[in-house]
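ingest -> validate -> predict -> emit
validate: passed (alphabet ok, no gaps, 504 aa)
predict: started
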Amino acid sequence: MTTPSATSVPTVKLLIDGKFVESTTSEWMDVTNPATQEVLARVPMATAYELSAAVSSARAAFKTWRKTSIGTRARIFLRYQQLIRDNMAELAAILTAEQGKTLPDAEGDVFRGLEVVEHAASIGNLQLGEFANNVAAGVDTYTLMQPLGVCAGITPFNFPAMIPLWMFPMAIATGNTFVLKPSEQDPMVTMRLVELAMEAGIPPGVLNVVHGGKDVVNGICDHPDIKAVSFVGSTAVGTHVYNRATGTGKRAQCMMGAKNHMVVLPDADKEQTLNALAGSAFGAAGQRCMAIPVVVLVGESQTWLGELVERAKTLKVNAGHEPGTDIGPLISRAALDRVHRLVESGESEGARLELDGRKPAVPGYEDGNFFGPTVFSQVNTEMSIYREEIFGPVLCVLHAATLDEAIELVNANPNGNGTAIFTRSGAAARHFQEEIDVGQVGINVPIPVPVPLFSFTGSRGSKLGDLGPYGKQVIQFYTQTKTVTSRWFGEDDVGGVNTTITLK
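emit:
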């Protein structure tokens, strides 16, 4: 921990009641460029008082925001999506500097969040209730989808633009107010997106931001005025958040760890499959919850291993802003150390290291957190490199004799975030999609993250809570359904006493 006066680097502000304010905390963390170790900013660990002030601001703003017309809310997000488009290059540059991913990947990060903002602008069609006329004589029944109140979001380091944009636009568009806690490792692009949201017209108090670690997370889970919590991150933290938040009566949706498998059948198009596999296994330095860290080569596709390794060797490791970079640095020294430890465990536990990505040469960036593409063969399901989420550019290669054997292997893994099959056989693809027990399935698509018309649907050990973070499901998550049954009598209507529960 450091103090904000240690150097002249800027400090990351809090957003409370429409104002960007300096934290009064004594605890600060450095935000560093993972390619150079340059300190870009310092982020505060917000105090309990500051969290309380943010929630109080959101609670007060809810009284008027919940009654704001759908048209007004929609127009704010129409303006917001245009502001994001206009500032795309700046947002990507900030993201690359603090997170490390390549500039094209950073733009993709922003763009996938932008798609959710565009969806939020359609709130007039999304937040429709139901109506039934004359369910009994002169009686109508209808539903209202009403906002909950103050909601909160806790977001991870690996998608500092996309995942915040999964959360607060949909919550606010449905009439709630919001308290956001970005990752303390790379909050700068999130804060720039928040500035643009305020510029788009989000009123004071409707969106608030606090920074911090465990204490702030626990404060969000415990605060009695917060009605719902959205989380994306590790399984350990997500399980803690879900149990603590629901234990205090909140709604919670927690998208957590993964160990996604790609199943390759021998009839697949080899070139397309190998390109897709290399991109999904090593892109973003493997720091995606929907990355492919495991490939199951079925039957004769096992002979493709050598070509896969050669494909991986062609990927360029460098700072994310350098032209032609395929793989940028890992987020931190701790992340780099973790990947090193797991690769060493793979060797010691008997896997065969086909390609070693440790300590790649990156001229001019010798202090960067770089790790090159790494491939293990002869992996079994008892090894640490298979059981643990590595979150680095490391691919485990397993073999299966048949498609059914591959399906059994995937279903035996405790995680259920995403999976993919590559094949030319429609029958095989249909059999796979029916039998696989995973939330999101790709058919010749390596990373099957759905567009916002649909919901993110991870399952089993990768998700706690019934409803996904965007799409139709998130409208249900951020609203309370109220059912109204009404009857209006005419002036001449006269009825007797009815002692039954039926309407007549």
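The longest strand covers residues 139-147.
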